[in-house]
Design brief:
single chain, alpha/beta, 2 domains, seven-stranded mixed sheet, four-stranded antiparallel sheet, globular
Length: about 375
């Protein structure tokens, strides 16, 4: 297969839809080959060095950053070598949806596959560094909404990133493009955000569908599920600590080679919380049901924005507040089988009026 020439700018990596179609999923190795070959040498070397100095945990993803770990100071080695530790980041809300801070450990209980678990580590303010993936839908159906997203999301970037936090920016349409790799520089992220542009692949027809006047059986226009899969597998899976993904989209996928289930599994394996801001043109259908499933399974939520800039600003403030109000629980599962199976996890607040927003489970390590 002849690969296209390298992008003009080394910070941009493109997963082309046709290349993706030839790649059987979930073959991460082949995805990485395409990913790496289309990256400039300097950027690839930087990524390799980063992965060497910051390796992924041996098993259950999501181990806290070594430089800022919860729990007793003398247990730092435990966090580093205990591959059976399950880490849960979550928020607690009252019956009105307001965040509830500063609850004690004895206010929570954890169940795995219906069996109670012993909480080993606990923090009421999870302050570990955050790795954030910003995902912008640049398909045709977002043409009217993109300028608003660029302006409001740019303001959000400036306020949400802390000194130790990292973020990257991906756009998705007929391709999946990494416009800015992991960085702590908000100015670089804002610059990449300003460069996002609507891309329908040069084909006319209904915006966002990637088809002409004759309908296509498998149109390519909004590779939403592919974007989630690639962000999870190629970026977030290799990071440690708190991780989240924020999608600016109408929630409709067209043409992905990845299914919704595969996208959810990839996010779960990367221990990533997913938030979806439903930003949409009222003329087009939005994908509420699929996005609700994605967020519920990963511990995030859907916020309906529509086409109003003030609603988008409010939604981003809510996400920021939740990310800064997370609780942390770490436990060693009673089930020690290294079978790679999915384990259902439930975190309950003992006060009936409180509701916990957490991921629904994790995948056990596999030997």
């Amino acid at each position: 297969m002849q690969l296209p020439p390298l992008p003009a700018e080394p910070t941009v990596r493109t997963w082309n839809a046709m290349q993706f179609a030839r790649t059987p999923l979930p073959s991460t190795l082949l995805l990485w080959v395409v990913f790496a070959m289309m990256t400039a040498t300097a950027t690839a070397t930087s990524l390799s060095a980063q992965q060497t100095t910051n390796p992924s945990p041996a098993a259950v993803p999501g181990q806290p950053h070594d430089k800022d770990q919860p729990g007793p100071q003398d247990s730092a080695g435990t966090f580093k070598v205990n591959v059976n530790l399950v880490n849960l980041y979550f928020v607690t809300k009252d019956k009105h949806g307001a965040l509830v801070p500063n609850l004690a450990q004895d206010q929570f209980e954890v169940f795995e596959d219906g069996q109670p678990q012993t909480i080993k580590y606990y923090k009421a303010d999870a302050t570990q560094p955050l790795t954030l993936g910003l995902m912008v839908d640049t398909s045709g159906s977002e043409a009217r909404m993109l300028p608003t997203e660029q302006e409001v999301a740019g303001q959000f970037i400036s306020t949400v990133l802390g000194e130790k936090d990292l973020a990257f920016l991906i756009s998705f349409d007929v391709n999946v493009d990494l416009l800015q790799d992991l960085t702590a520089r908000s100015q670089d992220l804002r610059a990449a955000l300003r460069k996002t542009a609507i891309n329908t692949g040069g084909v006319g027809g209904i915006p966002g569908l990637g088809g002409g006047p004759v309908p296509h059986a498998h149109p390519r226009g909004t590779l939403l599920y592919d974007a989630i899969y690639l962000a999870s597998e190629e970026k977030l899976k290799h990071e440690v600590g708190r991780k989240a993904m924020i999608l600016f989209t109408d929630g409709k996928d067209e043409g992905s080679q990845t299914s919704l289930g595969q996208a959810i599994e990839a996010a779960q394996r990367a221990d990533t919380i997913v938030y979806v801001l439903l930003v949409y043109d009222p003329r087009f259908i939005k994908g509420n049901r699929e996005m609700e499933r994605l967020c519920q399974e990963t511990g995030g939520r859907v916020i309906v924005v529509g086409s109003k800039p003030d609603k988008l600003k409010k939604a981003l403030q809510e996400v920021s507040d939740e990310l800064r109000s997370q609780y942390y629980i770490g436990y060693t599962p009673a089930n020690r089988k290294a079978d790679g199976a999915f384990r259902k996890v439930e975190v309950h607040a003992k006060t009936e009026d409180y509701r916990v927003q957490a991921r629904k489970g994790y995948y056990a390590p596999k030997q």
